[in-house]
Amino acid sequence: MSSLVSRSLLGLVVATGCAAQATFPTAGQTTPATAPSPAKAPPVTARPGPPATVAQPDKPPPRPEPHWQRFDRQSKQTPVETEAQLDAVLKSLRSVHFAKLDKQYKQRVGFGKRRFRYLSRRKVYVPRGADRFRYLVGRNRIIRFLSRGAEFWRNMGPYEHPPTPMMINKRLLGVLLKLRQELKRRKLDHDAIWVLSAFRDPQHNSWVGGDPASLHVHGMAIDLMVADVNRDGFVDRKDKDIVYRILDRKLLRGRGGIGRYPNRRSIHFDVRGSRARW
Ligand SMILES: [Zn+2]
């Protein structure tokens, strides 16, 4: 009861506060009577009356807790730093074969075409509800690995939402994990890299101008954002070079592709099984 009253009072304060702010600056400095706009004049004196002084000063209404924050608080999840942890997360997610995915979903995102038939036995994860806030590698949440096209926004609800399929290659996640481990081992900032884009359904891929044969469509490529990995206070080529070299010489070698986008802060890598550099 009392909380209800105070809440409504608070609402009043906020409402009147806004009204006052909206009207004062124009007519404000000395005399509102001389102001040429008569429409605004009368309510100014009447509104900020007794309730404003009764309630608390100008405390803004509490912001709703972001969903991811609530999830972290309730789940007490920790960053995924080992292969065992990664396995555990993947195992706990619902998964189906590509062939079993909803036909209408496939039509919507462009997976209905014949040329994708060969994917039929491919495992596709179907994270549900709050699953998308879970860490998959490091502090990269599952939501970062989802295709963020029309389907993503279609399923975007506050907490519960229809599942958004996620095709993601386990070896690819392993490379990302090892990249983090290697940065940590070299006493560099392993949280200064994060996933910009991983799986992209064909529709989303074409929207972002991706090659139709892009490995992102199969969940076999990641675009990474690279920030101040070497902690020298600058985000520059040196940071990207460090990441590039680890991927090139240690993690991928002849088994994957790396694209360095010059003049950009991101770097692409994939697990195509053969060597490619550009
Ligand atoms: Zn890419």
Describe how the helices and strands are arranged:
Elements: H1 2-27, H2 41-46, H3 50-54, H4 67-75, H5 83-92, E1 95-97, H6 103-109, E2 123-125, E3 135-137, E4 140-141, H7 150-154, H8 170-185, E5 193-197, H9 202-207, E6 221-226, H10 237-252, E7 257-260, E8 266-270, E9 276-277
Parallel strand pairs: 7-9
Antiparallel strand pairs: 1-2, 3-4, 5-6, 6-8, 7-8
Helix pairs in contact: 8-10
This protein binds zinc ion.
Description:
- The protein is of the alpha+beta class and 278 residues long.
- The chain has one domain.
- 38% of the residues lie in helices and 12% in strands.
- It contains ten helices and nine strands.
- The strands form three sheets. A five-stranded mixed beta sheet has the order 5-6-8-7-9, covered by helices on one side. It has a two-stranded antiparallel ribbon with strand order 1-2.
- Strand 3 and strand 4 form a beta hairpin.
- It is globular and about 65 Å long.
- It starts with a helix and ends with a strand.
- The N terminus is likely disordered.
- The chain binds zinc ion.
- Zinc ion (ZN) binds next to strand 6.
- Give, in spatial order, the strands making up the sheet with the most strands: 5-6-8-7-9
What structural class results from the helix and strand content? alpha+beta
Parts with pLDDT < 50 across at least 5 consecutive residues:
1-42
Q: Roughly what percent helix?
A: 25-40%
